[in-house]
């Protein structure tokens, strides 16, 4: 489903360059659930951004569904991302000017799907928010906002879901509910999951764990 090949990322720092990721290589097969763990600053979120094609590597390749992401121009990369990927972020990333329903409809409309309204309503019902369709993000709790984000991520039935610390801004009880929901929907749709987390209990729910340290894949 996705493969990193000798992936590296550097940024300018003072008189030199700071290495964020160094020669990262691994494969994630279709249907797998893989956790990426490591201390703060180990490069986890940077790696996830590269897998999504949201950032450009300094060296190496990312193959998404067998296609080299960075051999594509930005428009083709966005089209591939839109057709294959779903995202769940720590900070929810909902559009504040759109209602819950409109936020979930957006990727369906961008994909040219007929019946986007009905599909979005069904997804919000699945995450327990059928009574919150017309609410704006500012009127939703953190847990409700993340439920909208999960509904949006799964709405297009992506082959690959990328989740970056999805419980990071939630209390323990709400976070546990959100993780249960995300894993349940992942199983229902047969989605491949790559999850960045600092929570060892969440990581253990995945079939495989990749550990980063100092920008290197250590286990």
Annotation keywords:
219 residues, alpha/beta, six-stranded mixed sheet, 7 helices, 10 strands
Indicate the multimeric state.
Answer: single chain
Helix content: 25-40%
Number of helices: 7
Label the overall shape. Answer: globular
Structural class: alpha/beta
Radius of gyration: 17 Å
Please mark out the parts with pLDDT under 50 across 5 or more consecutive residues, or reply none: none
Proportion of beta-strand residues:
25-35%
From the N-terminal CA to the C-terminal CA, the straight-line distance is 20 Å
Q: What is the residue-mean pLDDT, rounded to a whole number?
A: 93
* Run of helices and strands: EEEHEEHEHHHEHEHEE
Strand order of the largest sheet: 6-7-8-3-9-10
Count the E strands.
10
Major sheet characteristics: 6 strands, mixed
Written overview of the protein:
- The chain is of the alpha/beta class.
- Helix content is 36%, strand content 28%.
- It has seven helices and ten strands.
- It has helices spanning 44-51, 74-84, 100-110, 116-126, 142-155, 172-189, 200-204; strands at residues 2-13, 16-28, 33-37, 59-64, 67-68, 85-89, 160-164, 192-196, 208-213, 216-217.
- The strands form two sheets. A six-stranded mixed beta sheet has the order 6-7-8-3-9-10. Strands 2-1-4-5 form a four-stranded antiparallel beta sheet, covered by helices on one side.
- Helix 6 links the parallel strand 7 and strand 8.
- Helix 3 (100-110) packs across helix 4, helix 4 (116-126) packs across helix 5 (142-155) and helix 5 runs parallel beside helix 6 (172-189).
- The radius of gyration is 17 Å and the shape is globular.
């Amino acid at each position: 489903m996705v493969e990193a090949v000798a992936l590296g990322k550097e940024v300018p720092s003072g008189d030199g360059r700071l290495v964020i990721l160094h020669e990262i290589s691994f494969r994630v097969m279709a249907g797998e659930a893989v956790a990426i763990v490591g201390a703060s600053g180990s490069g986890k979120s940077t790696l996830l951004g590269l897998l999504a094609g949201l950032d450009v590597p300094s060296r190496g390749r990312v193959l998404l569904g067998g296609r080299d992401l960075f051999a594509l121009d930005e428009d083709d990369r966005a089209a591939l991302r839109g057709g294959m990927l779903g995202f769940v972020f720590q900070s929810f990333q909902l559009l504040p000017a759109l209602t819950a329903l409109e936020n979930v409809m957006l990727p369906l409309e961008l994909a040219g799907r007929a019946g986007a309204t009905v599909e979005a309503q069904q997804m919000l019902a699945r995450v327990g928010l059928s009574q919150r369709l017309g609410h704006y993000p500012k009127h939703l709790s953190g847990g409700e906002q993340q439920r909208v984000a999960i509904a949006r991520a799964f709405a297009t039935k992506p082959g690959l879901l990328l989740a970056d610390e999805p419980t990071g801004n939630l209390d323990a009880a709400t976070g546990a509910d959100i993780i249960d929901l995300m894993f349940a929907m992942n199983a229902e749709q047969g989605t491949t999951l790559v999850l960045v987390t600092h929570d060892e209990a969440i990581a253990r729910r995945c079939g495989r764990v990749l550990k980063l340290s100092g920008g290197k894949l250590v286990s």
